[in-house]
Write a structure and sequence with these properties.
The protein has 15 helices and 12 strands. By secondary structure, the chain is an alpha+beta fold. The chain folds into 3 domains: 160 residues, Reverse transcriptase/Diguanylate cyclase domain (Alpha-Beta Plaits, 2-Layer Sandwich); 56 residues, 5' to 3' exonuclease, C-terminal subdomain (DNA polymerase, domain 1, Orthogonal Bundle), CATH 1.10.150.20; 112 residues, Dna Ligase, domain 1. It has a 5-stranded mixed beta sheet with strand order 5-6-1-7-8. A 4-stranded antiparallel beta sheet has the order 9-12-10-11. Strands 3-2-4 form a 3-stranded mixed beta sheet. Strand 7, helix 6 and strand 8 form a beta-alpha-beta unit. The chain binds thymidine-5'-triphosphate and magnesium ion. The site of magnesium ion (MG) has 5 residues, from strand 1.
């Protein structure tokens, strides 16, 4: 059973502005395009929300709902700075962190004894280091952790332990399921579905008619099940294998034989890695050598491939042999260790625009 934490900052942009200007703390506040400019709000503080003011609402309409609304333009630099700090806090607690936006992330802390203690520590660290409050959910999967972080907002923590899942989802309103927008709510209303328990009773073909492929996910959620992994933002940029010999080796032909063994190992490691995380395009291959005086050298070659399919052709053992020879020519010493590996084209090189981290203020 997994242990997932979902962290979401409270009225993020608005809270940063309230932190930096006490005069904004007790007034209804909207962050976004100014009135009269036909633009929308990015968010609002909790006082403004009482008037119905919310994210993505046209500012002019928000001012009609709340005539005393104070509206200020967003300052993305400040929000990015706060975001970097919270992200570094997350990485302190788990290598498995999936940022969803500037103010939100999932953490997989399945190895920890108490996910709840970690969640409390994270809340405290965020407050200490940024002066901002976050709400945190702890649950056995991403779907429930996200629902949980919203449950006690602002400055809240809510834990759904595995034993409570069944009871919790029974009465969970379907409109809270992430991905159910206005249209989804209308469909559920027309079907008389209010809770996840109601949802489970709707026949497959009926749900499928309205939601298509998403209907399977909906059934799973209604049972409290979500198998999605936390996908870490840490990306493997290379993969290599190496071996240290029991005795230093001087003869190149023996080293070339050792290289073949290592090649086999690297090949199967790479296959397993691609199976697990999807294929990546190879950018370079390299061989490294450590001599008996502990000096090191690496020789690498750039590969000219533009697709995923031909990695097997590019990774022939014969391509590594000249690289080993080059390394050995650099020094006449006996060899302690050899290694070989590949470097990948990174996501960023492949697709330089990181859409998920762009602010989506209209
Ligand atoms: P959210 O976490 O959705 O909202 P929030 O943090 O303001 O409020 P809550 O306490 O309910 O979590 O979004 C985070 C920030 O992203 C938000 O402060 C502003 C920005 N944002 C937009 O720019 N446009 C939008 O439509 C939304 C929803 C958010
Ligand atoms: Mg938020």
């Amino acid at each position: 059973m997994k242990k997932i934490i979902h962290v979401d900052m409270d009225c993020f942009y608005a809270q940063v502005e309230m932190r930096d200007n006490p005069a904004l703390r007790n007034v209804p506040l909207g962050i976004g395009g100014l009135p009269g400019t036909r633009s929308v709000l990015c968010t609002s503080n909790y006082i403004a929300r009482k008037f119905g003011v919310k994210s993505a609402m046209p500012t002019d309409y928000a001012v009609k709902l709340c005539p005393n609304l104070v509206v200020i333009a967003p300052n993305f630099k400040k929000y990015s700075e706060a975001s970097e700090i919270i992200q570094s806090i997350f990485h302190h607690y788990s290598p498995l962190v999936e940022p969803v936006s500037l103010d939100e992330a999932y953490l997989d802390v399945s190895d920890a004894e108490s996910a709840t203690s970690i969640a409390l520590e994270i809340k405290k660290a965020i407050l200490d280091r940024t002066g901002l409050t976050a709400s945190v959910g702890v649950a056995p999967n991403k779907f429930l952790a996200k629902i949980a972080s919203d449950w006690k907002k602002p400055d809240g923590i809510f834990v759904i332990p595995p034993v409570n899942v069944e009871v919790f989802v029974k009465t969970l309103p379907v409109k809270l399921i992430p991905g159910i927008g206005k249209k989804g709510k209308e469909i559920f209303d027309s079907l008389g579905v209010k809770t996840c328990d109601d949802l489970k009773k709707i026949p497959h073909e009926v749900l499928n008619q309205y939601f298509g492929k998403f209907s399977y996910t909906l059934y799973q959620y209604a049972k409290g099940i979500d198998d999605r992994e936390v996908i870490s933002d840490w990306e493997r940029k290379s993969l290599s294998v190496e071996t240290t010999f029991p005795k230093d080796i001087r003869e190149e032909n023996i080293l070339q034989l050792e290289l073949l063994d290592l090649y086999e190992e690297m090949y199967s490691r790479l296959e397993a890695h691609f199976d697990e995380e999807g294929e990546k395009i190879l950018k370079k291959i390299f061989v490294k050598v450590k001599f008996n005086d502990f000096s090191r050298t690496t020789c690498e070659e750039t590969l000219h491939s533009h697709d995923f399919a031909d990695w097997r052709k590019l990774l022939l053992a014969d391509y590594f042999k000249p690289l080993l020879s080059h390394c050995l020519q650099k020094k006449g010493n006996a060899v302690r260790l050899i290694g070989l590996g590949v470097r990948f084209v990174t996501q960023e090189e492949f697709n330089p625009v990181q859409l998920s981290l762009l602010p989506f203020c209209g």
